[in-house]
Structure formats: C-alpha cells, structure tokens
Design a protein that fits this description.
Distance between the termini: 28 Å
CATH architecture of the largest domain: 4-Layer Sandwich
Largest sheet: 8 strands, antiparallel
CATH topology of the largest domain: Glutamine Phosphoribosylpyrophosphate, subunit 1, domain 1
Number of domains: 3
Bound molecules: fructose -6-phosphate
CATH class of the largest domain: Alpha Beta
Helix content: 25-40%
Number of helices: 19
Strand content: 15-25%
Radius of gyration: 25 Å
Number of strands: 24
Structural class: alpha/beta
Shape: globular
C-alpha cells in the first residue's frame, strides 16, 4: 500500500521526507513525491518509478523548508505516472494533500467541483481533497479540513498542508494506519512506524474518525466535531526490522492478518448501499455481449489458479455459463476452442506472470474478449487485457500468496453475481443473501484469526511428518488444493490434495497409520459424502484434522481434532476455511525452521516460462 510521511519542525523537511519514504520502500510502490513549504510557497516534486528516480530528478536542487509531506504511491485510481503521483494540489497551489486508501464518492465530488470551475490534472480519487479544501477554506484551515472529512466516504489516511497556515499539518484516518511521532521541537507523521523510528519511539497511534493538528511544539487530537480527544503516548519497543512487519515475525503472518482489511478494500464501492446488488463500474462491456457469452475460460497459475477454480464454481452456479479453468502454461499450448462469444478471465496477483500473460495474448489472438483480475495497477496483464477488475489487496511481499487469494475469491464472487444480475439467472433474494453474507466476511475472518493456539499445537505435533493429505468435496476440494500448496511451498512437507470421493480410486493405498489428513467439511450439499470419505481414512488409522463451521456438532465424532470457522453461506465459506490452512502452513514452516517469507527455489514474480 502507499506510504505517507509528514514533517514539521526546525530541520530540513525534505531530508526527513526522503529518508522516511525510503524506510517505507519495502511496502512496494510505483511512484513517489514530496511537497515542501519554503515560507512563501509550496514546491511539489514527484516522479513515476523508484525513489531513486525522484532523488535523481532533484539532484542538488532539494526543496528547502521546514514543513512538508511525502508519499509513495501504489496505483489505484489511474495508472502510475508523474501526474497521478502524490502530493496533489488545488487550482492555486495553496493546498497539498497526500492520501492512502480510496475515496469512494470521489466521482460525484469531482463532478460537483468541476461544475464550480475546478481544474483536475490527474485520474486519481485523491485530487478531490485539495480542491474540496480550496472550496471550503475561508481562513480557518481546521474548519475547512473538518468539512472535507464530513463530505468524503471511504477508507483513508490523509495529511493536509496549507500555504496560508505555516507550521501546521493536519491529518486524519479511517481504516488506514497513521502514526504521529513526537520529537523535540519537531513532530513527524507517517503511515507506518519504520518511517519515524530513527527519530523517535514516542508516538500517538490515531484511531478512526480522529483528526490531529500537528505543529513543531505540539499535537492536538480531536474528533470531526472538534471535540478534543485524550490519547496515551505509545512507546514503540520494536526494532526497525520488526517495525517493517508491523510487529509480526514475518510478512506472511502480517499479510494473513491483513485479510479483513484487504477484503474490505476489495468490496469497497462494489456493493449497492442497500445491499441489493453488485456494482462493477470498471466493466464497460455492453449487456448484449455479457448476455451472449457462451463460454468462459479462467486462466492462471498456482494460487491464482486455485482462486480460478472457485471462480468457475461461482460463475457456473450463479450466471449459468459454462466455465473451464486452465493452468496458464497448459492453456496456451492446447489449442482451446474460442470464438467471439468467449470470455477469457486471467487471474494474477502480480500481473506479470509470463505464463498468464502469454495465455492472455493467445486468447486475444484467437478472438476472445479478455478480462484481468489483478492486484497491480498498470502491470503488463492489466495493460494487455480488454478490461480489468482490481483486487485492491495492497502489496503482497511474502512469496506465499494469502491476502491475494482471498481478495481474488471476492472478485470472482462479485463477477458471478454481476453476470447473474445481467443474465437474470439468480433470484433477487439469493443475490441479496450473498451480498449480505459478503459484508460479514471481514469480521468473520478477524474472528477466525483470533484462535490460533490450537493451530500452533497441531503444527508442532504434526510438523515433522513428511507427508500430509488434504481432502474435500466441491468448494472444499478447491480450498484443499490451496491449503496443500501453501503447506508444501513454505514447509517443504509433501502435501497432496484429493477430491475426497477420488481417494478410493487409488490414493487410499497411501493412507497408513498416523498419517495426517486435513479434511475440509464445510459444504452442506456434500456433507454426508465427505463424512463417508473421512470414515474411510479413519478406518486406515490416519490422524484426521477436520475443518468445519462452528454450528457443526457432528464432525468431532469422527475425527481426531476439529478447527471451526464462523458459519456462513456455503458459497462464502472458502473465504474462511482457507485461513486456518494458511496458519497451519505458516506454523508448520516455523516448526521446521524454514525461511517463511523466502522459500527455497521460489520467486514472488515468475517472469520466466
Ligand atoms: C503461491 C503463489 C504462486 C502464485 C503464482 C501466480 O503461494 O504465490 O503460486 O500464485 O506464481 O502468481 P501471480 O498471481 O502473480 O500471477
């Protein structure tokens, strides 16, 4: 996700801003910028690419001044470019803003502002903020910021700076982190602790709905109505490396825990306010084409392919279109049957996987319409596809994909519902039921993440086994495939996932005394059948860990241990069932002393065939 820094004091602002942004580089970004107030005017410098490019552009001509803000951007609205980079200004250059997150109602606000004569330079949602400030400012900076905050909807952390109010930065947050570092004769603002840890360990962690006025001598925190809020100073006692991981031991664990927030971001602005329908404004195909699609291919690699398998189930069930899910490196060589009524959906976290990119090009060459589901704005796959739906998971740093998978599942579900709405293939009540279930998922993932102790215990107890089987039917089988991949890639345990009904056709021969079997049994429609398969492996003395919903009282009678996840619709439960499997893989890898974030032989972005 983007990085934010701010400085006010007696020192050289630009020095801190550039240094602070460097400390946030690990989070991933595609452009950077700073704005510094020199006592008279605000100088803004920005550049697409790495910070090194911004520094090169500045050369010796570093902006001079003791107050400033800076930003590293991870593109959301609008591709990575100089113009889309932050900070953004109003028409007169009196106000500058840096922002992380998404302003959901920016289109309506932008229209309103354009009508009033404001000129916009970028494609970003952020740019509405300085223009709103310009609109509301009548000499009282704080009052104008409060008005802006009242008008915007979405998730954000923002820092505002005004040319008319020297020595004063104002910041606020909603669903995105923001910390204020307390120095002596200087104060700092950052989206993450690593940016300030070299200067101070005394911080205020802002809460949602709070706004802070930061000067070099003090910090006043208040709510949006201006009522002061008393806050305790939080002393950071992590070292710089731990701070990068937000206090988690590994990026993978951090990213597993980021899933509620990531899923919220994926859903943001894509559900009708009354919960009645899905909105995918980014899709501009005419209804006639979507009504006429006769075949869909979902093409991807690894974890993204597993998300595609769930997508196949969703789209076939909801939109009643036949879907084939293909491994990208196979698809392009198998001469798929494609015509103008075919839609090919490629799924890729990085948007750079060469197999997926080549499959996308092949589908286009054969005459298919194409849609990319990806996390990286401006990536090769996003640029090549006809249309794009972004997952908005934020940068994923650990090699093992976790939050990318859950957010891909969310997009698949949104696509299924969207096509069902257009094709009128699902009753309205069922759409509402699923949409309302979806809204609960972030909280339910958080609940799933609360109870990790039993998972740690299983990982310790079974972490030294060399073989593990995963079984499940229907959507549980798709989740089993992902659980098994996670375990093998980071713990190097040999793991196999089988459709539970398939065991008896050969694999059952491998089930022996004390062999761990993870049985996923969340799908009510095939529950009894899965139970029978569990009994088959129990009869061969396997040790079975079951994954079930928390209303299930049956499974524990047949297995050795049960991990429960919150009850939800059986279509949605893969979003929850995968979480204990991610944690099991993580803790098994820890037990075996593996390098979790950088497993052997693997790379985060696979740009070779
Ligand atoms: C596994 C994993 C990989 C990727 C695969 C595709 O945890 O991360 O299997 O899913 O290499 O990568 P993207 O999604 O970037 O195309």
């Amino acid at each position: 996700m983007c990085g934010i820094v701010g400085y006010v004091g007696d020192g050289e602002a630009a020095r801190f801003l550039l240094e602070g942004l460097t400390k946030l580089e690990y989070r991933g970004y595609d452009s950077a910028g700073i704005a510094v107030f020199d006592g008279e005017k605000i100088r803004v410098e920005k550049s697409v690419g790495r910070l090194a490019e911004l520094k090169e552009k500045l050369g010796d001509n570093i902006p001079v001044g003791t107050m400033g803000i800076g930003h590293t951007r991870w593109a959301t609205h609008g591709r990575p470019s100089d113009l889309n980079s932050h900070p953004h200004t109003d028409c007169a250059g009196d106000f500058v803003v840096v922002h992380n997150g998404i302003i959901e109602n920016y289109l309506a606000l932008k229209e309103e502002l354009i009508k009033k004569g404001h000129k916009f330079l970028s494609e970003t949602d952020t740019e509405v903020l300085p223009h709103l400030l310009e609109e509301f400012y009548d000499g009282d900076f704080e009052a104008a910021v409060r008005e802006v905050l009242r008008r915007i909807e979405g998730s954000y952390s923002i820092v505002f700076m005004s040319r008319n109010d020297p020595g004063k930065l104002i910041c606020s947050k909603q669903d995105n982190p923001l910390v204020i570092g307390l120095g002596k004769g200087e104060n700092f603002i950052a989206s993450d602790i690593p940016a300030i840890i070299a200067h101070t360990r005394r911080t205020y962690i802002l809460s949602d709905g709070e706004m802070a006025v930061v000067t070099k001598v003090g910090v006043a925190i208040m709510n949006y109505a201006g009522v002061p809020v008393r806050k305790k100073v939080f002393e950071v006692n992590w070292n710089a490396e731990a701070a990068e991981k937000g206090g988690f031991e590994h990026f993978m664990l951090k990213e597993i825990h980021e899933q509620p927030k990531a899923v919220r971001a994926t859903l943001s602005g894509r559900i009708e306010k009354d919960g009645s329908a899905v909105v995918l404004e980014e899709l501009s195909w005419d209804k006639a084409f979507l009504n006429d699609v006769r075949k869909i291919f979902i093409v991807a690699c690894g974890t993204a392919y597993h998300a595609g398998l769930v997508g196949k189930y969703y789209i076939e069930n909801m939109a009643r279109i036949s879907v084939e899910c293909d491994i990208a490196s196979e698809f392009r060589y198998r001469s798929p049957i494609i015509d103008e009524h075919t839609l090919t959906i490629v799924v890729s976290q990085s948007g750079e996987t060469i197999d997926t990119l080549a499959a996308l090009k092949e589908a286009k060459r054969l005459g298919s319409k194409t849609l990319a589901v990806t996390n990286v704005v401006g990536s090769s796959i996003a640029r090549e596809a006809d249309q794009v739906v972004y997952t908005w998971a934020g940068p994923e740093i650990a090699v093992a994909s976790t939050k990318a998978y859950t957010t891909q599942l969310i997009v698949m579900l949104l696509l299924g519902l969207y096509m069902a709405q257009i094709r009128d293939s699902l009753p309205k009540e069922r759409i509402e039921e699923l949409v309302n279930g979806l809204k609960e998922i972030p909280t339910q993932i958080s609940r799933t993440l609360e109870d990790v102790d039993p998972i740690k215990t299983f990982a310790r107890r079974y972490g030294f086994n060399e073989h593990v089987f995963f079984i499940g039917r229907s959507l549980d089988y798709d989740v089993a495939l992902e659980g098994s991949l996670k375990l093998k890639e980071i713990s190097y345990i040999h793991a196999e996932a089988y459709a539970a009904g398939e065991l008896k056709h050969g694999t059952l021969a491998l089930i022996v005394d004390s062999l761990p079997v993870i049985a996923i049994a969340t799908q009510k429609s095939v529950y009894e059948k899965t139970l029978s398969n569990i009994k088959e492996v129990k009869a061969r003395d396997a040790v079975v860990i079951g994954i079930a919903s928390d209303t299930d009282t049956e499974l524990e009678k047949y297995v050795d241990h049960v991990i429960k996840v919150p009850e939800t619709d059986e279509m949605l439960i893969p979003l929850l069932a995968v979480v204990p499997l991610q944690l099991l893989a993580y803790y098994a890898a820890i037990t075996r002393g593996c390098d979790v974030d950088k497993p052997r032989n693997l790379a985060k972005s696979v740009t070779v065939e």
